[in-house]
Amino acid sequence: MTDRTIDTAATSDVAAASSRAADPEPWELLGEKVAYQRFLTVKVRQYRMPNGHEVDWDVTGPESADGIARGVTVLPLTPDGRIVTVRMFRPGPDSVVTNLPGGLIEPGEEPAAGGARELEEETGYICDTIEIVGWLWAGTSSMFRKYVAIAHGCRPDGKQQLDDAEDCVPVELTLAEFRSQLRTPGAMTGTDAAYLALDHAHLL
């Protein structure tokens, strides 16, 4: 394992904004080491709890040139209100599932621009407008910040450009069909981002 510089700036503003009077005290970060690094980086963080007990915790996130990468998930809406999804194989579920378009934001790229780029690359659709409506952590042990965007006026006038490890098939769904996918266990990934986007689009 190799030592890495601790950088808490990315989360300190979040912790301050979300704190509550009845919250437990935050844990003290003592250090961290990289345990594994490929597409995903796994770090072991050493914490001291408020009671003095010290614990190790595994945290994960995809690495980029400027640290842990950010990602974006897009809810693409066509002019007639249909939702553009992608059907693709996911190694985690080990099956073909429904997804919303999205991916990693390039270093220096704005989240909205990254969302529009990923939309076209994965589906061949372009949009009239795209708006970031929020972001969320990818999981309780994740360092990965995932932005959520809503794209309006989506139409298949672009060019699909898939990575070597992607096999996305774009599928338009009605809102009822999309909600059915959300409610079906195991049918879809990224449901947290999907629900957040639907909420902001007043489609729940």
UniProtKB/TrEMBL annotation:
- GO molecular function of the protein, one example? hydrolase activity
Q: Which InterPro entries match?
A: NUDIX_hydrolase-like_dom_sf, NUDIX_hydrolase_dom
The Nudix hydrolase domain sits at 67-189
Does the record carry Hydrolase as a key word?
yes
Per the record, the GO terms for biological process are: nucleoside phosphate metabolic process; ribose phosphate metabolic process
CDD domains annotated for this entry?
A: NUDIX_ADPRase_Nudt5_UGPPase_Nudt14
Q: Which domain of life is it from?
A: Bacteria
Identify the keywords attached in UniProt to this record, alphabetized: Hydrolase
Q: Which Pfam families match?
A: NUDIX
Q: What cofactor does this one take?
A: Mg(2+)
Q: Could you identify this protein by its name? A: NUDIX hydrolase
Q: Which organism is it from?
A: Kribbella albertanoniae
